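Task 17 of the worksheet. Students: predict the tertiary structure of the chain below and write it out as structure tokens. Keep your answer in the requested format; marks are given for formatting as well as content.
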Amino acid sequence: RDKNDFVASIYLKQQPLKSSWSFPEAGGFRIWGLGGRWASAGPDDGKRGDENVVVVGEMAGEGAAQPRFFEGEMDGSGVVSMDMDNVFENNGFESLRSFAVDYSGVSGVPGLFVVVDRFSGDTLEKVWVMHTQEQVVVEDNGFLLKADSGATMRATFVTPTEIKVDVEEAERGGKILVSGGENFFVVMTVQNGIAPEVEISGSGLDAEVRVGERMIFFREDKIILEK
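Model answer:
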């Protein structure tokens, strides 16, 4: 209806289009809502780091992803997982990205978003990237975004627990780069007012996370949301 509505999306790119104006966007996501453009598009330079993805070493990451799991709800909530093995062609390691959206309000906020990136079989440096059009405040375990509307997004990194957060100026706002681990488990809440507490039990991808009355897990190949 208006700029306060939520819109979240993620690119699968199941088959790259050869000899075309094609971007390395597999796994890239967008999140807008409550007047904020939290996760937005980067510059149109055709580089992997121009998307909201994980950049692995110097690899281009121009391959295609394959669907692994999908479950949707009537209110627009849902979980999607994609096999990212072929995104970095001939790389010799396995990768999966799972993306969850929760509009139910069970978490105590109107928008809850979770991203998990799992890697195995390599030792290359990994950088989690997100472009935003909002003001960025770096925090110990993540970052806080502030929109002119007064709404905020708080991102909490469940893993890695010791992260380095850099913010670069970009063509369309800011570029957030997070490094410090092999896998990423990120919980993001969008709200008016104070962000809810993110309670974490355990560590790594096996951690159990609670936000309000919402429990969040990552098991096998997907994010699980339970009440």
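Marker's comment: The chain is about 0% helix and 50% strand. The mean pLDDT is 92.
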